[in-house]
Design goal:
Layout: E1 25-27, E2 34-36, E3 41-46, E4 49-53, E5 61-65, H1 69-84, H2 90-102
Antiparallel strand pairs: 1-2, 3-4, 3-5
Helix pairs in contact: 1-2
């Protein structure tokens, strides 16, 4: 009988499956564009107030913005406060505006 011997069986080797790495996506509250989380700047509402979170790991409610002044200016008008579910105090605004002024000016190439 052909095929009943162990030597006649086909040997199937499993190929390692390439896993696609999941990249978290976030929406900019200034322009509503969706980008990978690592390309955005996180702003977080904590008990101490609203502050920029460069590590992305501070505890609190967060919102994301591009590193563009245009998006920050739009976000400061109200979208950022709405996303953080808090009113921005004068101190918070001053802290965020000082960070916004360190961002490069938008240049259209």
């Amino acid at each position: 009988m052909i095929g009943n011997k162990p030597s006649d069986k086909l040997k199937v080797t499993k190929k390692p499956v390439q896993r696609v790495k999941h990249v978290p996506q976030r929406t900019c509250v200034g322009c509503r564009e969706v980008l990978p989380k690592r390309q955005m700047v996180r702003v977080v509402r904590t008990a101490d107030g609203v502050q920029v979170d460069p590590t992305g790991k501070l505890a609190g409610r967060g919102a994301y913005l591009h590193d563009k002044r245009e998006c920050w200016a739009r976000g400061m008008r109200g979208a950022l406060a709405h996303a953080l579910k808090a009113e921005l105090t004068a101190e918070d605004r001053a802290r965020l505006e000082s960070f916004m002024n360190t961002l490069p000016a938008e240049t259209n190439v």
